[in-house]
């Protein structure tokens, strides 16, 4: 293999390029028009345009194979997403005389539909969740199956993934609406509306096992990962190894995963996903586990496995694809330390996790983190592709050390130009229950209030950080934080900070190399210095505190132990007279899938008014006020722009 074509974009394309070049393999990057200036295009040996900017060019199998031939590529790596789990594409690559860096098309096909996959696993002796995986998809048959399984249950699109086409149903009355929504998402995302039903495990953990197989009969696992921190069934934080499991359970999961791969004559990298039922514990204290699905590709979260095993999984993929045996036997694969990965997304985490679009104005990460990203300063994030900014990975000798490194790294990360979930991830990674290992897949929903920005009064230590950083008198002599003061000269500066409508007025006086703060009850005199890692350290009578400070002309943000506070440097604007609090605006571009109200109808706060489809996901739009619909500017099927006034409530 001398030249490799990468049938993907962004972060995973860069990841593959890095390893391929280290192995002496030339690379060909593909790109849609708007991706022409992306980092993966510059970093590849050569690049070829796919045409207009949308997801479709990366799904054009015929064009991709033709480019591979034109560029004299011997192999195609599909990355993840797009065509990575498309059995027809894998078969077409092989038929063209090229190497597909992934499993055989038959193995992909065997795992492609969740119902068929569960049947195969059941025959192989791998535990599966009780449920219905039948071919009869009529409403009456599905309703009868649901009654037989009992509620709560889970509806899943058989071709689903990433949380699309998945609905939890707690009672019979909500079954039909949930079924129709799952079928619509399945059809929109996978061109397949078929679903399966299964018992809903009330307190599940999501644990997956990385497997690898070669063409010489060798099949191994590279230990497990925990992916239980999820939002809408989409992974947010992943870690390896899974915390709190007995060695017995780890062994059983590894054996089950290898059995699953062997049963379908697997090749290359794959991940077998299991659900652990924390409410069903055996005599050894181990929870029951069930096969969920197998991802027949490299996973987004593969870096945490690389971190604990020291294995380059992309290198293994390329070696296996060109016919080499696995580099290590099972007993040679050791796990050392702990690693955790957080997915940094362009989304409004404090406003319902709606996607955020815009141009990245600044993007900085601390050196303590491994960062896998496909964008850079100046990149634009739209709605055509997944809005991931980066994967940030922290490693430590222990889980506690890895989580602390991740939290500090997120505190130090800077993303401007659009909204991101950075602060949410920091709060999540530092939540006491998560740090203690007390979590399941419902953790984010259970702790939703605690994971929102604090509504408590701003701590005085935070105000002290802000005042000390902003209030140092700008006269001769250098300070540790980029401003200056003259030693022993009691010059005074007045700092005014707003937390919402609350004004905090603090006087700062420099005396003998320290700062005296007036206006705070518990902190009087402090010293502030900049540390080599970019943090500021505050020394006061209450002890030492370290925080990251992000200062703009409009505000100062103080990030302390996973929490963050933004204090305005100017008074907030007054409310505009006559402004309408009952307007509902589109949170993103999309299509109105359904409209649940009519002009003149009375509505309550929180009542569902419409469903907006964006990025192949359904988003419920709820009433922001009590009143009557006085203006209705949309109909079902309409395309709407971001920020458009959809309706008004009087």
TrEMBL record:
This is 3-methylcrotonyl-CoA carboxylase alpha subunit. Its cofactor is biotin. It holds the Pfam family Biotin_lipoyl. It comes from Polymorphobacter multimanifer. Residues 574-650 form the Lipoyl-binding domain. Residues 1-449 form the Biotin carboxylation domain. Its EC number is 6.4.1.4. It comes from the Bacteria. The keyword Cytoplasm does not apply. One of its GO terms (molecular function) is methylcrotonoyl-CoA carboxylase activity. PROSITE patterns: ATP_GRASP (PS50975), BC (PS50979), BIOTIN (PS00188), BIOTINYL_LIPOYL (PS50968), CPSASE_2 (PS00867). SMART domains: Biotin_carb_C. Residues 118-322 form the ATP-grasp domain. Keywords: ATP-binding, Biotin, Ligase, Nucleotide-binding. Gene3D superfamilies: 2.40.50.100, ATP-grasp fold, B domain.
